[in-house]
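Protein 1 of 2
SEQ + STRUCT:
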Amino acid sequence: MSELQISLIVLGAIVIAAIVGFNWWQDRRTRLKMQDHLPVLEDDPLLREPGGDHARKEPGFGLSHLGIEPAAPKTASAASPIGELPQSALIQEPDSVTEVVIEWHLSAPTQGRALLEHLQAFRGAGRRAVRLFLQTTDGSLVTQLGEDTEYVAIQLAVLMANRSGAITAIEWSQLWGSAQDLAEKLDASVEGPEQHEVLDRAARLDSTCATLDTQVGLTLLLPSQRPIQDVVDSAKAMCFIEQEGRLAWIGDHGLECFTLSRADNEAFDAGMAGIDRLTLLLDVPRSPANPMAFGRMLEIGLELSRRVGAELVDDQGNPLASGADVAIDLQLQTLYGQLEAAGLPAGSQRARRVFA
């Protein structure tokens, strides 16, 4: 092969590489411009990606989900845990396992009063829970903004997945566009991960959580309509407390162990005079691990049933089989272990964030 042929081949390769590089640069510039001009919309159902609301499995519910049949309780083998997540559940800063971070670096130390109005828009991101962290001039990371305190950086930690599913491309684009707008207003630089990285990590987290998401319920059937206030008073006399339209049984750790609600999921004070059906619910990932978690709920449920004159049945309306409480609690121990191994200990801050 002559030197001329070699030179032509090298020149051709250089031209092709230049064209590919130019096309990549043009594509990236166009994508960033589109993100810059995307309006910040609330959760607009017309803009949701197909399957965005349905990709996440519903929490496993009831005794049948755990392999417990009404007449013949048995211990079903649980699936092996999915994903490899860090063990730490004490979240004192953005959590790299469940959150992605957008960070603004201010051009000069800025007092909190100058930031307050700008940050209000980031208190929520559609269905996405967010947390704001501010870095002071001494390097400390805080969550409370002081009007006279000076800050040099701001971090927005965005939850990648919850029971609504994984964050979508539209949600992330809206957030990133808003972040760039704020950077211009504050004369700050902004950094954040690439969209494909966010979506990939969110999908993996969502898959892990969907596999481990379990709720176990019992039903109280009253023979006829009873005034709601009578039922509420009976429950409160047993130390249930009001919590977001439901009644919760709180353990010594200060967290809810299980809840009591109307079967229609409406709040107890939602304009209905009488009620004939109630639900006791153990939300396994959100309640601290307990070797007798279900047995305790069953015990309380039986006493409440006696007080209000109800029949206690499983979520399918069948009488609970003898020994089912022991079998269920044994299975829950396996699930607690899986949650722990996945870095989502039951009842931890991290678990309560993603299983919400």
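Protein 2 of 2
SEQ + STRUCT:
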Amino acid sequence: MHLDGFYKDWAAPTYKLIRILIIAFAFIMAFPYLPGSNSPAFQGVSVFLGILLSIGSSSAIANIVAGVVITYMRPFRVGDRVRIADTTGDVVEKNLLVTRVRSIKNVDVSIPNSMVLGSHIINYSTVAQKEGLILNTTITIGYDAPWRQVHELLKEAARRTDLINQDREPYVLQTALNDFYVSYELNAYTNSPNKMAIIYSGLHQNIQDCFNEAGMEIMSPHYSTLRDGNETTTPSDYRNKDYEIQGFRISKS
């Protein structure tokens, strides 16, 4: 049986909630028929236990209510890469009391549901499989570098990177014209949000390689030192080589 608008991951919590309500209703209906239920002692003990539970479980009740709300909000599912407040990782468990997130360092963080509900939640996996998650990184290059060549170098770095979607063309945005350099933002698609750290590392390595091969310095965020003005920061392994990409060719002597 399938109900429109009722998601599969709602089935288990809905069953548990209905079961709790039925048990509570049955207990309320049966309470007057319990032996001694009308005696002052029995009623006094019942009131005392009720006060203890209400005072001692206020935070637990808040987490349970928040857990129910989160379940039906569906901000994330088990296995999603999320960021909750300052914690980033994969959701490994969610229940009525806590949500457990495993960070990229294999650290399990248990976050009370009331805190989850009160924090902003970033889900990197929601549309990653269908539309692709856009990863972005920014570098700054001096004004003497042709901006069209910078765009092509950044795109080439994205094409060389593993787990970057090769079916969708990366693109570059020039986000700022600063005093000494231009800020370029590279945007590339991936369908593997759970491996963001590895992808970013590979992307940054390839950016370095592409710009070193072209003999172009990356001034990120600003290069300031005392040096011979004729010297370059490009590693010697990349010097005295010809480099060509997308119609741009640089010949080294």
